From TrEMBL:
Protein name: Alpha/beta hydrolase
PANTHER family documented for this protein: AB HYDROLASE SUPERFAMILY PROTEIN C4A8.06C, PEPTIDASE S9 PROLYL OLIGOPEPTIDASE CATALYTIC DOMAIN-CONTAINING PROTEIN
Range of residues in the leader sequence: 1-18
Keyword flag DNA-binding: no
Positions of the BD-FAE-like domain: 36-152
Native organism: Mariniflexile aquimaris
SUPFAM superfamilies associated with the record: alpha/beta-Hydrolases
Length: 294
């Protein structure tokens, strides 16, 4: 087992419930020291095991942080539903690059970025699983969550780890019970199968100009641009899950663009009710909600 390195401890308080926040290093890669923040309800019993949201922030693989105000707030808020919230850092490989992650960024660089983000996320998940007893985590009930670039990272990790990971042996105990994606897409939804399909929450705008809603080029890049790369967005993912008779909660915003990647705080009650029914109680529920951008 890897040694747990505790960096910080802070007692936080919400109006409804309090939680502790503890920060760990989960790996060091070159000059990058990658950490995760664990938000735990203070009233957990000593030998309890809790479901967990393992969250990956957005930012185009160039900006953002695990303790950004919205990402931290989400992980605080999930403790109200009896979950442990974990927000991770990962390598921002497009930071300070000329091409960033748009149409000037080559397809090869985009795929390498997806690969390394997948590896970082899986390494964070492996750390959590290895230290589950200390962290009071039920490893059979880990929800993979993320927004924008983070949603791309977690979708590729859940459904395409065989494609992106160099070695599956180190992740043999890593299993995900659900997905929470805000404006995400994956490289190829055909990798979703009956064996790996899990209850998935999907939020997406139909006119997203960065991460495709259905099957389209990333950032809507033209065919002649270096960054032309087809991705499968939430619509395609939901269709695969429906065909596989797997639960999903698909919130569509007609006319919505990439602002739908913002964490849907007003919908958390419905989201965690869905996870209660499908992940905790094994019900099969397929829900599609259509809103119109105001």
């Amino acid at each position: 087992m890897r040694k747990i390195i505790v960096l910080a401890f802070t007692l936080l308080a919400l109006s409804v419930q309090s939680q502790t926040k503890t920060t760990y290093i989960y790996k060091i890669v070159g000059l990058d020291t990658l950490k995760l923040d664990v938000y735990t309800p203070v009233n957990l019993e000593e030998d309890s095991k809790s479901p967990t949201l393992l969250w990956m922030h957005g930012g185009g693989f160039s900006i953002g942080s695990r303790d950004y105000i919205d990402d931290a707030k989400l992980c605080e808020d999930v403790t109200k539903y009896g979950y442990i919230g974990i927000s991770i850092s990962y390598r921002l490989l497009r930071k300070n690059t000329k091409t960033q992650f748009g149409c000037a960024c080559s397809k090869e660089d985009k795929m390498e970025t997806f690969k390394q983000a997948t590896i970082d996320y899986l390494d964070a998940a492996a750390f959590v699983v290895e230290n589950a007893k200390t962290l009071k985590i039920d490893i059979s009930k880990i929800i993979a969550g993320g927004s924008s670039a983070g949603a791309e990272g977690i979708l590729n990790s859940v459904y395409m780890k065989e494609y992106f990971a160099d070695s599956l042996q180190k992740y043999k105990r890593v299993k995900f019970a659900g997905v929470f994606s805000a404006a995400g897409a994956m490289v190829n939804a055909n990798y979703i199968t009956k064996n790996n399909a899990v209850p998935s929450v999907l939020f997406h705008g139909t006119d997203d100009n960065l991460v495709p809603f259905a099957n389209a080029s990333h950032h809507l890049c033209d065919l002649d641009k270096p960054g032309y790369l087809l991705l499968d967005g939430s619509k395609i993912i939901a269709e695969k899950l429906e065909a596989l008779e797997t639960s999903y909660y698909f919130n569509i915003v007609k006319g919505g663009k990439h602002e739908v990647s913002k964490i849907p705080f007003n919908d958390l009650d419905d989201i965690f009710k869905f996870f209660e029914q499908t992940v905790l109680n094994n019900e099969v529920i397929q829900t599609k909600i259509i809103n119109t951008k105001s």
